[in-house]
Every structure is written in structure tokens, then in C-alpha cells.
Amino acid sequence: MYFSDSNRKYDLKNFTNKYWCNDNFGICYPLLKEVDITTPISQQKGYNNDYARYWTKPILELNGKHYIICSQWFEDFREKLDKWISKNPVPSSIPAIKAFKEFIPLKQKNKCIHYDYKKDLCGNLDNPLFNQPCDNVPYCHYYSEKIVYITSKDKLRSKLCLCCGSQAEYEYLEVSYSQSKNSLTTTKKLQILRCNHCHKDFINVDLYKNYAKNKNPDYIDVKFTEFKK
Q: Are the C-beta atoms of residues 172 and 191 closer than 8 Å to each other?
């Protein structure tokens, strides 16, 4: 949010300078450390080959480069940090601030078709952060959600796509449900009608209701939505 204001881009030089950060924040390391996204982030959380001094996520993309944030904060630094914050408030006019104030929800990473739930990694080959921890940012350009449209059983009997009218085929879609990373994941195959022309998937409403009963839709890794043409 701080760097959403383009006038603050110059601070990158300060935030990566150990001595400036010590003078202004009290912290003993640079606030930000530039990382090489072609190397596992777990191998880059140290400082000068020392012990881990940085959080591995979120990974910040600023001015076309990627950074991680120092984790070594202690109560003794509070006075300097508070003083700096009071002199450098984040304007409420910044779009990112407005978004959070209006409670625009984060995109659900568990619904992204590229998200590896067990490893918490991004699996999109086009993403510069491929095979790196998913930071679940609100405006991820690589977020892609699997959508299945709910409709009546009668409309699916003809086996024609409800969007483009092409011939479609019945297939089975594997759907997973888990309320947290550490809870048991249940997987079930649901019959859907798939159009290989426009790549739309449909499920009959009775089957969906039977599956979704007593489940929180936020923890189903597929988005089911009512079909409206």
C-alpha cells in the first residue's frame, strides 16, 4: 500500500540500506531484501549467509523487482518506528487503501486453478513467482478461478452447451473440500457437462445441492455459480 504512491518509489534505496534502516527504524538489517525469483525463496531468507532474517512471504513486486521483508523486530525499536510512521502517513486517497477500507475481499487462493494447496505454491508457469509461496495478493494478475455453472437437469439432457450450443460431453470433475491447511481434505468426483468448444462446465442443481449440503462454499476449490444467459 505504501508504494502504491509513485512518489515513494525513491524509498526503495533507503529501505534496502542497512545503515539508513538502523537510523530510522532501529532495525539491524535492511527493511527490504531483493530476491532472485529463479531461486527457491527458502534459500534467500538469510542476511550475508547468516541465519534467517527475512520472512519468505509476502514477496513484494516493486519497480519490476522482488523483495522480502525483514523479520527481526523488537520492542526496543518501537520509538523510532512510531516516529517514522507519524512523519510518513499513507494517504487515504491511495487506491489500495480505499479498497481495504471498503472491505474488498482477497481473491481466494484455494479457488485458483494454479494454486498447489498442499505446498502453498503458485503453479502458473507464466507467473514470475512460479513455484514460490502464494502471497494471495488482492489483485494477482495470474489468478484464474475454476467455475462450474449450476443449472436444471432438464437443460442438460440435450448434451448441448448452454453458452455456444455446441455438442458437449459428460465427464467427471474432481472437487476438493478442506476448511484449513491442516484439516482433512475430502475429494469427490462430480458429473458435469463439459463443452470443449468454449470450455464451459455445467452441473445439475440437484447434484450440486447434494454435494454442497453442510459445506462452506469458501472452502470448496471450485466456484459453483448459477448459470444466467
A: yes
Q: What is the pLDDT of residues 205-227, one digit of tens each?
A: 999 999 999 998 888 888 899 99
Phi/psi at 82 (5° precision): -60, -40
161, 170 Cβ separation under 8 angstroms: no
Q: Are 147 and 195 in contact (CB under 8 A)?
A: no
Q: Is the pTM of this model over 0.70?
A: no
For 181-208, give one letter per residue: b (16+ CB within 10 A) or e.
eeeeeeeeebebbbbeeeebbbbbbeeb
Peptide bond into 58 cis (omega under 30): yes
For the stretch 92-143, pLDDT in tens is 555 554 544 444 444 566 678 788 766 778 888 887 778 877 766 555 777 8
Beta-strand pair 186-194/121-122: unpaired
Query: Which residue, among 133, 137, 151, has the nearest Cα to 192 in the 3D structure?
Result: 151
Q: Are 206 and 191 in contact (CB under 8 A)?
A: no
The burial class, CB within 10 Å (0-12 / 13-18 / 19+), for 148 is buried
> Edge-to-edge strand order for the sheet containing 201-204?
169-177, 186-194, 201-204, 147-151, 223-226
Question: How buried is 225 (Cβ within 10 angstroms: 0-12 exposed, 13-18 middle, 19+ buried)?
Answer: exposed
